[in-house]
Amino acid sequence: MISPSLFRQRHFLLFVGGSAGSWATVYVQSSVYAFLILALTEGPFLFGSVGSVFGWTSMGGDLLPLLLALPLGVLIDRVRRRSVLVAMSLLGAVLLASVPVATWLGVATWPHVALVGVIIGMLQGTSIAHDAYLPTVVGRDRLVSANTVLTVAPMIVLPGAMLASDRLMGDSPAPVLLVAAVVLAVSALLLRGIDAPEEPSGPRSGLRRELAEGVRFTLTHPVLRAIALCLVLPALFEEVIEAAIRETAQAAILAHRIDPGWPALAGFAASLAVLLPVVLLHRRIGVLRLAWLTALVTPPFALLSTLADTAWGALWYEISMIVPRAGWAIVAVALLSHRQVITPDRLLGRTGGTLLLLIGLAELAGDLLGALAGPLIRGWGPPPLLALGVAGTLAAAVPLLRVRHLAEPAPSPTASSPGTTAPAHDIIGSVDPDRETR
């Protein structure tokens, strides 16, 4: 189980509370868009095509975090990370509160609401800063436990928060936005209370050179390159697999009256139940080994959806949706923790930004593949397309298998305390991350 000492660390408890602000920005964006629709369709705010403006705003909120991922990574590596998190939380609080306040004062305009929606979408990029700051808060010997807590906590808190927001919203999303603004302000206050010493940033060499250094380090370091490929391939084939499962199980969903939203909710529960043993297993078998074993074992369960028209079709369908999602939650925690350990502190932001950009581009490409899934299903049928998607996902484990010998722990690893950096050779044997950048 998770070490009790982790919950006795004041810094970590403040960090968990402060992370609630980043969760709020993800789940409150729909309320901002609801306000935008109201502004576009009611009274003096009527303007042009609702669909086109909403689409451009939504696209901006999705694309800008990718475009700014690398510069944000440089910023995180240049300044104190706690300051970045506090500033972004305060900015989000002011922006969210400005929408209902402006509406009540009668001065709200659709460009204002649209701009807030775009910026709130951009603030989702604060996950890079959270990931870069966590090793300073808890040390590098407790990262798997800490990341597990940070993954499980939203699964526990957010379902209740979403139900509460539905009741608060009523005819207007204003109360939800105000509550989210308060959450972000409290998050900033909690993060401000963390006083873990941070390593000084290195000398600045210009934005372009620092961007290139972060990308080069991520793509040339053998383990980080394998982690990038392992994260990109599932994002590329996710839409294809889901489209094939929906088409395969469509008749069974109607016949068995399966709620399509149930597997997603059950997937959260399964991830919650499965993630906790990760803390027990990672020290016994190794973090990277845990990742590639899970990446090999769980994706083939998606093939069980082809049995959805049998007597036990509802059960097979739910397993086909739940197990792969739970598996990739484990993989994500394991790979994030390993990346945080092997990356020098001065490059954590840029490495995270590079991976965020690569995964985002893979998701965009995956959306295009998902759009092609319909014609392919009509030509090939759902099972061959599903098998192709699962095969592509299984390929994600291959890069990790090829570098597994680099992740063998040293005979006597040195545990690091919060605020310090464990030597990389204590974690991954003979691989020296700094050597890749020289």
Structural write-up:
- This protein has 438 residues and is mostly helical.
- Helices cover 74% and strands 0% of the residues.
- It contains 18 helices and no strands.
- It folds into two domains: 4-192, MFS general substrate transporter like domains (Growth Hormone, Chain: A, Up-down Bundle); 212-437, MFS general substrate transporter like domains (Growth Hormone, Chain: A), CATH 1.20.1250.
- 47% of the residues are buried.
- The chain is globular and about 55 Å long.
- It has helices at 10-27, 29-41, 50-67, 69-78, 81-105, 110-122, 126-138, 143-169, 174-192, 207-220, 222-256, 262-285, 287-297, 313-342, 348-380, 382-394, 397-402, 425-428.
- It starts with 9 loop residues before the first helix and ends in a 10-residue tail after the last helix.
- Residues 409-438 are annotated as: Disordered.
- It is a multi-pass membrane protein.
Describe the SSE topology:
Elements: H1 10-27, H2 29-41, H3 50-67, H4 69-78, H5 81-105, H6 110-122, H7 126-138, H8 143-169, H9 174-192, H10 207-220, H11 222-256, H12 262-285, H13 287-297, H14 313-342, H15 348-380, H16 382-394, H17 397-402, H18 425-428
Helix pairs in contact: 1-7, 1-8, 1-9, 2-3, 2-6, 3-6, 3-15, 4-10, 4-15, 5-6, 5-7, 5-9, 7-15, 8-12, 8-14, 10-11, 10-15, 11-14, 11-15, 11-16, 12-13, 12-14, 13-14, 15-16
